[in-house]
Write a structure and sequence with these properties.
Elements: E1 5-10, H1 16-26, E2 29-33, E3 37-42, H2 44-53, E4 59-68, H3 72-81, E5 93-101, H4 108-127, E6 132-133, E7 140-147, E8 150-156, H5 178-187, E9 195-198, H6 205-215, H7 236-247, E10 257-261, H8 264-276, E11 283-287, E12 301-305, H9 318-332, E13 336-342, E14 357-363, E15 366-375, H10 380-384
Parallel strand pairs: 5-6, 5-7, 9-10, 9-12, 10-11, 12-13
Antiparallel strand pairs: 1-3, 1-4, 2-3, 4-8, 7-8, 13-15, 14-15
């Protein structure tokens, strides 16, 4: 038990429940939900596992010190007192990012700069050498969080945001974030037991995340690097053991994942990304205009998609476009659970179908809704009978 420590997984607004469930299922202890984050306890191996295996986390932080700040000097003095030589060589490199909700420190960049100065000055005082700043590939990435009078210093175990899975080399206009896509699919309740479709698939993110969920493939297997790989206590044997244990838990998938897009360039990009992710055996992508299609077969279909909002496509007639979504679903897609996300809340009025669920989420900084339309075989009444 002595090897366990507290960690914090950061996520998107509204994903706290899903993230807490993921962490619990993976084996985390003392799971505690916050706002846009979930706290938990685990050991070094679990830190590796969480970074590799969690779908809805943006970062995994390891808090190492906490103190009060009532005036500006408190930050510098407390940070300088910390034993940074335990974490970083004098010849190494560092980067600091900060989030602040405090009346003394109002600028996150200034807070990051003061933290960096304190660390560098400590090394200089010890033996005259100082670490460099490297914002792209630092040996140690440090996170500073000041909320009112409480400052928490954490090590960023992930490095680059965990939504950068490593399979996406080709993107189109405003591609959906991989963590957002995975969270929406999980929120929609898809479990890999039916066919899946994204009728406006863009660069294929929804399709890739759906396939990884269906097969229980760890989402971050393809990443080039995690921040902890540059730490003094990096244990490559343990990492490989954890990776192997996660790969043993993958499962077979016996249904189809289908993507449509009416843009030939989007189809080409999606195919390239799916191939990079080694998921092409599960996913079939076609150049199709969704509004001219019909569902093949009578099997249950699960659909999750991210239609254009108007921000993404100029000259989009929103009323007509969303009206076409409604009529295509109604006339062409019986026995389908269709989920879509939009930040154009007005546009939903033109779909002409009554949603059975509406969930508030955010797409980047845009408030959005994830809505569910249940399309029955024949009429709703008949299906109830």
């Amino acid at each position: 038990m002595d090897n366990n420590f507290k960690m914090v997984a950061k996520t998107l607004f509204g994903f706290e429940d899903i993230l807490a469930k993921e962490l619990t299922q993976l084996g985390a202890m003392e799971v505690e939900k916050g706002v846009r984050n979930v706290g938990f306890v685990g050991d070094k191996g679990f830190m590796y596992k969480a970074n590799m295996g969690i779908r809805t986390a943006i970062k995994i932080l390891k808090p190492i010190h906490s103190f009060r700040v009532t005036r500006e000097d408190d930050l510098y003095k407390n940070v300088k007192k910390m034993k940074w030589e335990d974490y970083l060589k004098p010849t190494g490199s560092l980067a600091v990012d900060a989030t602040v909700h405090n009346s003394i420190f109002t600028h996150s960049q200034y807070t990051a700069l003061k933290t960096k100065d304190a660390i560098v000055d400590r090394f200089r005082d010890i033996d005259g050498t100082r670490p460099d700043v490297d914002l792209r590939f630092p040996d140690l990435k440090i996170n500073v969080h000041i909320d009112r009078q409480r400052c928490t210093i954490s090590l960023d175990t992930s490095g680059e945001s965990l939504h950068r899975r490593g399979y996406k080399t080709a993107t189109n206009i405003a591609p959906i974030n991989e963590v957002l896509a995975a969270g929406l699919i999980m929120m929609s309740g898809w479990d890999g037991q039916t066919d899946f479709m994204d009728p406006m698939c863009g660069s294929g993110t929804m399709l890739a995340e759906a396939a990884m969920i269906a097969c229980n493939i760890p989402p971050n297997l393809m990443r080039k690097e995690f921040a902890f790989e540059r730490w003094n206590d990096w244990d490559v044997d343990l990492f490989e053991k954890i990776e192997e244990s996660l790969l043993k838990k993958t499962r077979d998938f016996h249904h189809k994942i289908l993507g449509y897009d009416k843009s030939p360039s989007a189809v080409a990009k999606a195919k390239e990304n799916i191939k990079n992710a080694h998921l092409d055996e599960f996913i079939h992508i076609q150049h199709e205009d969704f509004f001219k299609t019909q569902k093949a077969g009578t099997e249950k279909l699960h659909m999750v998609f991210n239609p254009p909002y108007g921000e993404r496509l100029e000259n989009l007639n929103v009323e007509e476009f969303y009206g076409n979504i409604g009529s295509t679903l109604k006339h062409g897609y019986p026995n389908t659970n269709a989920w879509l996300i939009t930040s154009n809340l007005e546009a939903l009025k033109f779909v002409g179908l009554r949603p059975s669920r509406k969930i508030k989420v955010f797409n980047a900084k845009l408030e959005a809704r994830l809505v569910k339309y249940e399309m029955y075989e024949g009429s709703r009444k008949a299906s109830k009978q």
